[in-house]
Amino acid sequence: MNFLPFIYFSLSIFSLTWVMVYRTEKYQKLKTEVEKQSKKLERRKEIHGDSLDKAVKKKIERDEEKLKNNNRDLSLVKMKTMFATGFAFTALLSMFNSIFDGRVVAQLPFTPISWIQGLSHRNLSGDDYTDCSFIFLYILCTMSIRQNIQKLLGFAPSRAASKQGVGLFGPAPGQFK
Asked: Are residues 51 and 122 in the same domain?
């Protein structure tokens, strides 16, 4: 089984995404702004805590709103390539699924739990549940490798921005007070 076409395709999609999104000045500016605002908001919340001062609350709410808007803009910048990448990987998954349909692509060092066996042993003949289908291997690799690569290359959101929990569909400012 040769996975080189899959690896080349993944690298080319990643390269295209890097050129179209992560390298752009707009993305870099928004990312820096989100990180700066997240840290500023976190510091302000630590200093003032549950202050009853209305002026402080207004400043915090204003900062939360700015952070939410910048985070939304950042998500919109990435959205086009996310759709293109999703479409390309869905097509690739479909192609590889038809190529490797009914073939054992890996031998698992464990027997999966019963409710996962349908996926791990999908379209494979025999009763050896340590045999692994392509779709299961693809899902495992995607889940385990993707986030680590994003962190390694610096594309994952910063801890401060993640801690604030705002994004395109994040909570409204002051929602959980």
From this structure: no
Among positive and negative, which fits the CA dihedral 126, 130, 136, 137? Answer: negative
- Tell me which residue range forms the domain holding 42: 12-100
Local structure of residue 100 (DSSP, 8 states): S
Rounded distance between C-alpha atoms, residue 50 and residue 121, angstroms: 54
Could you tell me the pTM of the whole model?
A: 0.56
- In b/e form, how buried is each residue of 44-78, taking b as 16+ CB within 10 angstroms? bbeeeeeeeeeeeeeebeebbebbbebbbbbeebb
Do both 51 and 72 map to the same domain? yes
Q: For the chain, count helices (H), then strands (E).
A: 6, 2
| Whether residue 122 sits in one domain with residue 87 | no
Does 132 fall in a domain?
yes
86 & 65 share domain: yes
**133-146 residue pLDDT tens:** 988 888 887 777 77
Cα–Cα distance, 124 to 130 (Å, whole number):
11
- What is the per-residue pLDDT across 69-100, written as a single tens digit (0 to 9) for each? 998 998 888 887 778 777 877 888 888 888 88
C-alpha–C-alpha distance, residues 157 and 150, integer Å: 9
